[in-house]
TrEMBL record:
<feature type="transmembrane region" description="Helical">
    <location>
        <begin position="566"/>
        <end position="585"/>
    </location>
</feature>
<feature type="transmembrane region" description="Helical">
    <location>
        <begin position="357"/>
        <end position="390"/>
    </location>
</feature>
<dbReference type="InterPro" id="IPR001734">
    <property type="entry name" value="Na/solute_symporter"/>
</dbReference>
<protein>
    <submittedName>
        <fullName>SSS family solute:Na+ symporter</fullName>
    </submittedName>
</protein>
<dbReference type="Pfam" id="PF00474">
    <property type="entry name" value="SSF"/>
</dbReference>
<feature type="transmembrane region" description="Helical">
    <location>
        <begin position="56"/>
        <end position="76"/>
    </location>
</feature>
<keyword id="KW-1133">Transmembrane helix</keyword>
<feature type="transmembrane region" description="Helical">
    <location>
        <begin position="402"/>
        <end position="421"/>
    </location>
</feature>
<feature type="transmembrane region" description="Helical">
    <location>
        <begin position="202"/>
        <end position="221"/>
    </location>
</feature>
<dbReference type="InterPro" id="IPR038377">
    <property type="entry name" value="Na/Glc_symporter_sf"/>
</dbReference>
<comment type="similarity">
    <text>Belongs to the sodium:solute symporter (SSF) (TC 2.A.21) family.</text>
</comment>
<feature type="transmembrane region" description="Helical">
    <location>
        <begin position="96"/>
        <end position="114"/>
    </location>
</feature>
<dbReference type="GO" id="GO:0015204">
    <property type="term" value="F:urea transmembrane transporter activity"/>
</dbReference>
<feature type="transmembrane region" description="Helical">
    <location>
        <begin position="467"/>
        <end position="486"/>
    </location>
</feature>
<feature type="transmembrane region" description="Helical">
    <location>
        <begin position="134"/>
        <end position="159"/>
    </location>
</feature>
<keyword id="KW-0472">Membrane</keyword>
<keyword id="KW-0812">Transmembrane</keyword>
């Protein structure tokens, strides 16, 4: 129960409802996905007991499911909780910086995904690539960096989710922290990354419907009534004109220093998160050759609408509703601790739709938490099985032994993350602190990792030395500026905007000149053909030997190079459009939104949100989903390479209308 001043915020749902969702629904999903995994094995030949299926889904995932998985991968509970509460604090500029801080790098990753298909088609994890190119020392450094990335992302998401679940249901926060990943462990244990893709789709299906419903519900509640009325109510607020760092202190301006600073942190951090997250690389490896680029581009641009539309409507709607009797804390405003803890969304759900709203938000937080948990567990378990166990403990590990190690990794990772997140709770760390400081830890490997796949000239010493120095520089700047601004180093001082921004920039960009300088001083050249020494664990699929010369047929190589150019153009266009051309000039314009402009702004964001729903929910069904469901429903066992896409990338048509020659 939250309590502050003399107003007690009632808990809208019972603990029974909370445990029913967290445990009951988790178990139901686990049993359902386990059953689906068995059906896929029986009727579609997807054997989750082979490493190729468990870890990279036979590299055959289509465009629709890839796009849906991308949207799901970014729909963190931190996004659902964070974009509304930061919009509540800083106004309409913030959700744009949140959105482009996650959309742009996914479109950029499309280029890395197709380059991986072109150069390292047999890889299972990012760290295999590092080991082949830079050797043991760099590999160990990257194991550490990748695990830190996955660990802190997982913890950040779990801290926000468990706090919100506890506020909605009264469940003990420690219990919520351990129980939220429980069902995920079961279906990830049995189904591997294919189960991750499928549950991503189901979770995203439910999340998108609730997000669309909830944004409309906020706008039509009697205390607001319409988009135009929301604008009028914002202008009439006594706090309008008092936001520090905003033009004329308004909530309705893009000239917002705190939003800009957050955007710098968010964009820099999320480039690091994507590039250093082995889960994103695994989904790239798992995508079919024809699906990698369109899947990531579609998913990345569709995702933009979620923090933009949801953050704008819910964040600004909360600012208005807080001063009405409908709001749980009325007549007092929310405390700083409640806001930074991510309770804006749980509170406004009660104001808008009572217990029904609380249940809806509880569901999407559970869905987002478990979906991201599944991806993180697969990523962390793959590091343990392939890059630790298979590389240093049992170099001649069989397929069965690697799967067993993956299972151990799934269970161990869930327990470890829940334990650390509990420690963070007890230490007074909240969602806001983890959100702002994350990039200082995850960003040092960003540029060296990209160069590992894109630049032959990066030498072995460069990626070993530069990220370590970059991280040390980031911590030095972070702690130094926190002390300079506050006179102390504490949770409060290190969670401030500017220390986190300066530390994040140092951590991310110090490695860039270092790796260039080291590579120039001790030059060497890497031959991409060395990546071909990475082999599949079982080099047969349906008893057919995979032929490298067939995979690298002139037609397929030409196609992948063309898709690489398309991905590069999209990456540049997205960066320019969503960062340089759109919000930055509006920041400099020093304008306050007029009523008509505000209405158009919100309407466009809602249309974009509906398009995202179509891409996430219905496109995967049209892109092969219905056919596979019908195959399973008929009980027809698929045999032979001609009936399904195999891991050799034998897709016959891609979603952008280009035929990809089938390998015979």
């Amino acid at each position: 129960m939250s309590q502050s001043a003399d107003v007690v915020v009632p808990i809208p749902l019972s603990q029974g409802v909370g445990y029913g969702v967290v445990v009951g629904l988790g178990v139901a999903f686990a049993l359902g996905m386990t059953a689906v995994t068995k059906l896929l094995k029986k009727y579609l030949g997807e054997d989750n007991k082979t490493t190729e299926t468990f870890m990279v889904a036979n590299r055959s995932v289509g465009t629709g499911l890839t796009a849906s998985a991308v949207i799901s991968s970014w729909t963190y509970t931190t996004a659902l909780l964070g974009s509304p509460y930061l919009t509540y604090k800083y106004g309409i500029a913030l959700p744009i910086w949140w959105a482009n801080g996650q959309s742009v790098m996914i479109c950029c990753f499309a280029y890395l995904a197709i380059q991986a298909k072109l150069k390292v088609q047999n890889a299972h994890t990012l760290l295999e690539l590092i080991k082949i190119r830079y050797g043991t020392i760099a590999h160990i450094v990257w194991i550490f960096l990748a695990l830190l990335n996955n660990l802190l992302n997982f913890i950040s998401m779990l801290i926000g989710a468990s706090t919100a679940v506890s506020s909605l249901t009264g469940i003990d926060i420690v219990a919520a922290t351990f129980l939220l990943p429980l069902g995920v462990v079961v279906y990830t244990y049995f189904g591997g990354i294919r189960a991750t893709f499928l549950t991503d789709y189901i979770h995203t299906f439910i999340i998108m419907i609730i997000l669309v419903w909830f944004t409309i519900k906020v706008l039509v509640i009697k205390e607001i009534g319409s988009i135009g009325a929301l604008y009028d109510l914002l202008k009439a607020l006594p706090t309008e004109g008092s936001v520090v760092g905003n033009h004329k202190g308004s909530y309705l301006t893009m000239t917002s220093k705190e939003s800009l600073f957050f955007g710098i942190i968010h964009i820099t951090t999320n480039f690091g998160i994507v590039v250093m997250d082995t889960g994103f690389w695994q989904k790239g490896f798992a995508a079919d050759v024809a699906a990698a680029v369109p899947g990531y581009i579609l998913g990345g641009n569709a995702y933009f609408a979620i923090p933009w539309a949801f953050g704008t409507v819910v964040g600004l709607g909360t600012r208005v509703l807080e001063s009405t009797p409908a709001f749980p804390t009325y007549p007092r405003p929310m405390t700083a601790a409640e806001v930074s803890g991510g309770l804006v969304l749980p509170y406004v759900s009660q104001a808008v739709a009572g217990k029904g709203g609380a249940v809806a938000i509880l569901l999407i937080l559970f869905m987002a938490c478990t979906s991201v948990s599944s991806a993180q567990l697969i990523a962390m378990s793959s590091i343990f099985s392939f890059d630790v166990y298979g590389t240093y403990i049992n170099k001649s590990a069989t397929d069965k032994q690697l799967i067993r190690a993956s299972h151990v990794g799934v269970i161990g990772s869930a327990l470890f993350v829940s334990a650390v997140a509990t420690g963070f709770h007890k230490g007074g760390v909240d969602l806001n602190w983890t959100l702002y400081m994350l990039g200082i830890v995850v960003c040092p490997g960003t540029f060296p990792t990209c160069f590992a796949l894109l630049w032959k000239g990066q030498t072995k010493a460069a990626p070993t030395i530069s990220p370590i120095i970059g991280m040390l520089a980031g911590f030095a700047v972070w702690f130094g500026t926190a002390y300079a601004y506050s006179g102390e180093i504490s949770i409060v001082s290190t969670g401030q905007t500017l220390p986190c921004m300066f530390g994040c920039l140092a951590s991310s960009f110090v490695p860039l000149p270092l790796t260039l300088a080291i590579s120039w001083i001790w030059p060497s050249t890497f031959e991409w053909e060395e990546f071909l020494t990475i082999k599949k664990v079982d080099d047969t699929v349906n008893h057919q030997v995979l032929d490298q010369s067939s995979y690298f047929s002139p037609e397929r190589v030409k196609y992948m190079k063309r898709m690489s150019k398309i991905a590069a153009y999209w990456a540049v266009a997205t960066f320019l459009g969503q960062i340089v051309i759109w919000p930055l000039p509006m920041y400099g314009a020093r304008m306050i939104f007029g009523r008509s402009f505000f209405v158009a702004w919100v309407v466009i964001s809602l249309i974009w949100l509906w398009l995202a729903l179509i891409i996430a929910n219905f496109y995967p069904l049209l892109d092969g989903g219905i056919k596979q469901i019908w195959t399973v429903a008929k009980g027809k066992v698929v045999k032979g390479e001609e009936d399904r896409t195999s891991s050799s990338g034998n897709s016959t048509f891609d979603t952008v209308g280009v035929s990809v020659p089938k390998v015979e």
